[in-house]
Amino acid sequence: MALYSSPAVWSTPTLFSSPRLCFRPRTPRASSAFSSPPLPSISRFTPPRKAFPGDVVLDTKDSSLVVCFGEMLIDFVPTTNGLSLADAPAFKKAAGGAPANVAVGIARLGGSSAFIGKVGEDEFGYMLADILKENNVNNEGMRFDPGARTALAFVTLRSDGEREFMFYRKPSADMLLQEAELDSDLIRKAKILHYGSISLITEPCKSAHIAAAKTAKEAGVVLSYDPNLRLPLWPSAKSAREGILSMWETADIIKISEEEISFLTEGEDPFDETVTRKLYHPNLNLLLVTEGPDGCRYYTKEFSGRVKGMKVEVVDTTGAGDAFVAGILSQLAVDLSLIQQKVCTELPNDAIRLKTKCLRYSSSTLSCFYYI
Question: Which of 26, 84, 214, 339 is a good FRET partner for 193, with 20 to 30 A between their CA atoms?
């Protein structure tokens, strides 16, 4: 029995213009600790173009734009590694938020990306907008809330290897994005719309998320989904499971971790192929299962396989999944037929190479953006 929820019935396309909020002029910032050297571009494998198998032709757009929807926030990371949050002597700020990480990763690989989300009309919010611009990410879809602050998160990698999170968003600006604030024209221009599940937790952002996916689907945009489970942000494990699965069947591409498989299947073995196949819905074109240092598994309608991980010197795993997604989407945005032509063994390797390069750049500053 499939685990995903039944999809919502979406009507035929209705073109409309959404209101645009003003971007307050800013004085360019001097180079800061958030800037980092551009990563070397990864060569792209480009076989003859061919659409996905099946009745729905997805590869119809000339654009290679990937629009990332969701949260962008400030991460505070300890100045000393291997300590709990309570034991850390001091913290330094870093840009974070999974969808924004993916957007920056794609841009650093030479791709075209944009970010849609909301931050506070405060110094942190405008700092994040500047960082996107500095990294060649289109930030026209960002909105600024005068009544709520930019989200904050404290994150550390403990000595036992486990990550520890503490979030401050009661509510933060990202939770308050409204449907009327969406840049629908930007969404329609995309080849791929990528999102997570954090934007599905509360209203009004949940409705904005659903509307963005609907607009994209009606425009023939490919939907990419990384649940990126952050259980402390949800009211309960049950609500998290239901919320994540509520958008499952609308996605064309899903990236998930072995831990998330266990969570969504309520404790079943994530390495059991029959368990994983429960999460493969009829409309899905590519399911990616990451296994940390062991690599990843991939599943399509016609075949499946595994790619082994590469040995690297691990500095921190924070943001590694986002780097993986950026590597995958940067390739698929150029040619979606990679999925059909059984070249998935090439895609994860590029994503892993990306993570390897990023880890080399991350030795001085632990920031999600440094893992892209």
Answer: 26
